[in-house]
Amino acid sequence: MAGMVELTGQTLAAALSGLEQGAFSSVELTQAHLTAIEQLNPRLNAFITVTGEQALESARASDASRARGDAGPLSGVPVAIKDLFCTEGVRTTAASRILKNFVPPYESTVTAQMKRDGAVFLGKTNLDEFAMGSSNMTSAFGAVENPWKRTGDETALVPGGSSGGSASAVAARLALGATGTDTGGSIRQPAAFCGIVGIKPTYGRCSRWGTVAFASSLDQAGPMARTVEDCAILLRSMAGFDVKDSTSVDRPVPDYRAAIGRSLKGMRIGIPAEYRAPGMSQEIEALWQQGIAWLRDAGCEIVDVSLPHTRYGLATYYIVAPAECSSNLARYDGVRFGERVEADSLDMLYERSRAAGFGDEVKRRILIGTYVLSSGYYDAYYLKAQKVRGLLLRDFTEAFTRVDALLTPTAPSAAFALGEKMNDPVTMYLNDIFTVPASMAGVPGLSVPVGLDAKGLPLGLQLLGRPFDEELLFALGSALEKAAAFTHLPAVRAGVGS
Description:
The protein is α/β, with parallel strands linked by helices. The protein has helices at about 5-10, 10-20, 25-45, 50-65, 110-115, 165-170, 190-195, 230-240, 280-295, 315-330, 345-355, 360-375, 380-400, 425-430, 435-440, 470-485; strands at about 45-50, 80, 120-125, 175-180, 195-200, 220-225, 270, 300-305, 405-410, 445-450, 460-465. It has an 8-stranded mixed beta sheet with strand order 4-6-5-10-11-9-7-8, with helices on both faces. Strands 1-3-2 form a 3-stranded mixed beta sheet.
């Protein structure tokens, strides 16, 4: 049997190859990851629920199907599932007290498709409550710790959010890949903070059915993994048309993996002037320039472009997203499902159940959303925000008539310490300044780790593409990945720290 460090330290693509060649079994691979979770999760808190017995049962079934010559595209690969995806018979909490005991009787479309392709589910990962946050500190199940450390400093850092549990688990070698969701950057920002790859596909590329809703016009599922190739493998299973989701787009799912390493000669890459944000560090600016040079060396033509309305992206997002959140979360009333706090009247039951069940950040966004949708304010705020959103989309559409993709930083800083920025919600919201515009426009975005800052923490660059052109993002991302040769590892990982 291969050693635990060897098994958990490989990429998802390498694991599939090893399973195919018989170098190890899915049971061995799965057990190695469960052992790593047992050792490190008490510290990292990346998983809310670990499904060890079910994972080993799935692994045994996978080994049997492979022996019959009936292996699927993900057969035997242990992955983690963000606890926002409903999983039949397995607790799904959205990291909220109000859903702490909710066990769905159905499977989300995304996870059902991954199961169909043979993936082994290790458990459900932690997140900001209802996916609302950029730090993974709003979870009712406690904060997640980033496995990376500043050089010479043991201060615990945030993994980013909301998909921080998935990012931390993949970075610490507790899973070969994970699902995430991205509403305003919740895949890309934690991927950058944790030194892994993450992609937000085009809105409508992955079904939202069975995924706990935050903001329905923005939420999009996507994969998080250690390499661009690994994300390409996962996205092919996650993506696809679903009649149960009215926003799902009916178009074929390409072989994303085939795009890895293809020629980039003649591709035009836009550099948007507006992404040079005030106060952005020189390190990030220098890394951005390095990324531009790498793509130029790969045969791309670099073009300066303007996205003039992106400066309104964050403000617009924090009107639209809370408005949709206040509507979506109205269903959690203590009556039909979720936690209930008994009271003498129906109104009081609603109030007490929601007061006890929701955390401060969720309450803040519900209040903001209810306010901007209220009589007298709807036109002034929500309707105006939707008009600005249209201008944001127009900016991207016009830019993509001149260029094939855009290159920007993913986040304005590296990971910060647990507790930093928590006293000022607006400062926290600024973490999403580079990721929100693409979410508002519905275009795909890929974050790739490309270097370390002066304190030894990972930094990422973001590639943005035309709707449904994830293939080009994977091709460009693989070129950045190859040039950057990012082989740095976090301080805390399977077989190393505890």
